[in-house]
Write a structure and sequence with these properties.
25% strand, 13 helices, alpha/beta, 40% helix, five-stranded mixed sheet
Length: 354
């Protein structure tokens, strides 16, 4: 018999490399409608060593990746265990963990999220549901985005759900079903240039605001082939490293100007990606704190009601939804939508480890 409520820990590590997001979550279902509470939540920052490892891993050999996966699984397992002990969490149904994406090449039938080895269940002492992307790629899908099922079940009162993380992605309903796709790089690029100035990130977009728009760079960015592709489509860090950063570096302009121009590029591509330019849009992810980006987004979408939610939802929405994906997997219910990923069918993805 299926439960009516679940207590889980949702765990997410994104391409922004700001750390591991952990959220203690309560989900309830009543007459087919899901509700949630985000209880205790915390982001555990990566050490400089781990930031460097995760940045460099795209170029690792297979042997190096195997060792990295083992070490990261141990790191993640102990972070989760410490969170559970610190908050004295009892009788959890599961830990639902995304892991950390190192390689994402769905066009080659391959995606790798480290931190999902079977040992993680032993390290954190819990049933773990993880490795959500691999099955979808095997079914011919992009393996991303996976959040839209949560947008449908938990945030149905919004016309659009926009996440501004390492990459931006959007999800919305159409007559053909839920649609979602990655729009553009966001913090993967913005943080790269903030780091050049000795900062972890551009707080509130102050530095970007101080720069000047470079029209030629903006034109070159907007002409990238990715933006002409139809969905389903998704982006990985390889795209930023091999395509976006080399393009920007061709322009010998101040870092402030690169940030200013890239922010305006994000806003322009976001508006372009939305078929309807009015309604209600929920903006989450670290980019929602970037005042300069949000200013330009509102300028590009003057008829859109753009809402930024409470800090817990803004910062932990992905951990929240991977918690839901894990619960749906435990229930044997669909947690990945083929209309989003392009897979052969809707399916219940993930691995249950205990």
């Amino acid at each position: 018999m299926l439960n009516h409520s679940y207590h889980v820990v949702g765990v997410m590590s994104g391409t922004s490399l700001d750390g591991v997001d952990l959220a203690h979550l309560k989900f309830s279902i009543d007459q087919g409608r899901w509700s949630f509470e985000i209880l205790e939540a915390q982001t555990v920052a990566y050490s400089d060593f781990w930031v460097d490892q995760l940045k460099s891993a795209v170029d690792f050999s297979e042997t190096q990746l195997q060792k990295l996966n083992e070490d990261y699984t141990a790191l993640l397992g102990h972070i989760i265990r410490d969170f559970i002990q610190k908050n004295q969490l009892k009788n959890l149904d599961a830990v639902c963990s995304h892991g950390h994406t190192i390689l994402h090449q769905p066009q080659n039938g391959f995606t790798l999220q480290i931190g999902n080895l079977p040992e993680i269940a032993e390290y954190c002492g819990q049933t773990v549901v993880c490795d959500f992307r691999v099955q979808d790629v095997k079914l011919g899908g992009q393996g991303a985005p996976l959040v839209p099922i949560g947008d449908r079940l938990l945030f149905a009162n919004y016309d659009y759900c926009l996440n501004l993380g390492g990459f931006s992605n959007v999800s919305f309903e159409t007559s053909a079903g839920r649609i979602a796709f990655d729009i553009a790089p966001v913090n993967t690029v913005l943080n790269f240039y903030a780091h050049q100035l000795g900062l972890a990130y551009d707080n509130r977009g102050t530095i970007a605001r101080s720069g000047q728009l470079n029209p030629m760079l903006l034109k070159a960015l907007n002409e990238l082939e990715y933006y002409r592709l139809s969905y389903p489509k998704s982006l990985g860090i390889e795209y930023v490293k091999n395509t976006v950063l080399p393009l920007i570096e061709k322009f010998e302009i101040p870092t402030e100007d690169k940030l200013n121009t890239f922010v305006q590029h994000i806003a322009y591509q976001t508006a372009l990606a939305l078929p309807k330019k009015s309604g209600k849009l929920l903006a989450t992810g670290g980019g929602a704190y970037h005042d300069f980006l949000m200013h330009h987004l509102r300028s590009e979408l003057p008829e859109m009601q753009i809402e930024i939610p409470s800090a817990k939802i803004l910062e932990y929405k992905e951990a929240l939804i991977f918690g839901l994906l894990g619960v749906l997997k435990l229930r044997g219910e669909i947690n990945v939508l083929s209309s989003v990923t392009g897979a052969k069918k809707d399916h219940s993805s993930g691995v249950i480890l205990s």
